[in-house]
Amino acid sequence: MDSPKAAPTGARPLSPHLQIYRPMLSMMMSIVHRITGGALYFGTALIAIWLVAAASGPSAFATVQGIYGSIPGLLVLFFYTWALIHHALGGVRHLIWDTGHGFEPRERELLYRLTLGGSVALTLLIWTVGYLVRGGAG
């Protein structure tokens, strides 16, 4: 039996990478979907901390509310809301694909744009309604 020869390391072809590929919306949305999935782990920990603080008593709850109500805390919560909605809409996009629809280039592009625009619009809507329900600035 002949033993297989190992290919010289310098002669083997390399896979294309980001320096070769032109960034496309589909590529960017795939990357963002993965990032938002990871961010949701962090945001879920924030919700757990909030719930534990609420169960621990008024002092602990006031401390967490103070942190989450600060400008940096509100920014984190705002982007958590966006990540949650964006990831959910990405899941709906994949559900549509699971039915065998939306694979044509125009349809894919439309689904990507709807996911992105819808996540921004729904996040702004949720935060606007929340702001108004709490009584606005006053």
Automatic annotation (TrEMBL):
Keyword Heme set for record: yes
Localization per Swiss-Prot or TrEMBL: Membrane
MF (Gene Ontology): electron transfer activity; metal ion binding
Residue stretches spanning the membrane: 31-55, 67-89, 110-133
Cofactor note: The heme is bound between the two transmembrane subunits.
Stored NCBIfam families: succ_dehyd_cytB
Family: Belongs to the cytochrome b560 family.
Record-given protein name: Succinate dehydrogenase cytochrome b556 subunit
Lineage: Bacteria, Pseudomonadati, Pseudomonadota, Alphaproteobacteria, Hyphomicrobiales
